[in-house]
What we know:
Layout: H1 7-28, H2 32-38, H3 43-71, H4 73-93, H5 97-113, H6 117-129, H7 136-163, H8 168-192, H9 204-228, H10 230-250, H11 253-261, H12 264-287, H13 289-295, H14 300-317, H15 324-351, H16 358-387, H17 389-407
Helix pairs in contact: 1-6, 1-7, 1-8, 3-4, 3-5, 3-9, 3-16, 4-5, 4-6, 4-8, 7-8, 7-12, 7-15, 9-10, 10-15, 10-16, 10-17, 11-12, 11-15, 12-15, 14-15, 14-17, 16-17
Amino acid sequence: MTGPATVRSATRRLVGLTALRWLPVGLTTPITVLLAQARGLSLAEIGVLFTVHGAVVVALELPTGGLADVLGRRPVVVAGTVLHLASCLVFATATSFSGFLAGILLLGVGRALDSGPVEAWYVDTVARIDPAADVAPGLARRSAADGGGLAVGAVAGGLLPGLLGGGADALAWPYVVAAGLDLLFLAAVLRLLTEDRPPREGSVGAALAAGARELPRTLTGAVRLSVTDGPMRVVLLLTAVGGVGLVGCELLGPVRFADLAGGRDGGAAVYGSVLAISFGAAAVGAMAVPALRRLLGGSTRAACAVLTAVGALALATLAGPDVLGIAAAGFALYYVAHGASWPLLSAVLHTRVAAVHRATAVSAMSLAMALGGIAGNLAVPPLVAAAGLEAGFLAVAAVAALGVLGCLRLPRSTVADTAVAPGGATVGY
Length: 429
């Protein structure tokens, strides 16, 4: 299939691929812990698995981004999809800690591989079609597809085991279905993710070896740009702040809703429903980004500041009255703010890098979010143990509020006046 001829057609491909990518992830999210517990793992062992996943993603995020830059977007996405499919099958059949550990390792490597190449392909394609086009609206639609796919998957994944009668075997079925959806996504990638790259001669092994030799130079250039460019530093800092905010939702949220629901069983059901709604809310927030930016005179800086402030207030609400509706609204509102700010930060990032480092730069954003999450996971639990759950939410909200100051250092625009200059230098800041 030939490449897209218009920005609109490229955006349609981006949206479709993103929705298909995150649908299977949403399908397995509500049942991962429950499946592991049903197969005999303790919560401590499950915590070790999540720690391993985070460590794998952090270790491989930048190298795999560089691999996509030197080998091509599509091969790396295909590899990541195959690994995710394999991890789903391992999770569905695992009966011991070692089995789940194998699944989490496959999942982590796959996640690191496909975290940036599709977005990098879209930005490069739009630049080829119309060098003056603003990618922020398309990235907003991508975030909407991301949240929508997760929301639909979460609802289906939560309902499927009950429809199949319950028990450990029924809990495994969302992973089986997710593996099937990975096959559908793989077919879509092979058809839609076209690249304007010359065909490579020689074997796959030779191509991988050549890419490995180029990888250090690619990574060094991307890291140097991240360190020396002011707006990129701010983007990565704000992305890390977003990772801390998600810790407040994903680590403290289940505990909060269990308290409000009167027990763990009721809390799990309520949290699953709120999580699905919040994924959808994030999609709505992403779709509203262009309108919000127009309302604020076209200022990316102002839009990010408003969204960050709203997110901080939403997190503080979770420490407020013991009312389920208020807590659920605050939880969903944070996801709205987070989902809306991500495409704006991504658009700023893409104005600061040349095509040769684009996938690496996208991976740097994912790495920053992962590091923020790790910092939150290390700092928040001791605070909660010493001062209570409300103090944990307020501390996370305070970190998010400090992000407003960082937003004021962003460029105002994400179009030509902040574009990458020839040779990779940046202008317009």
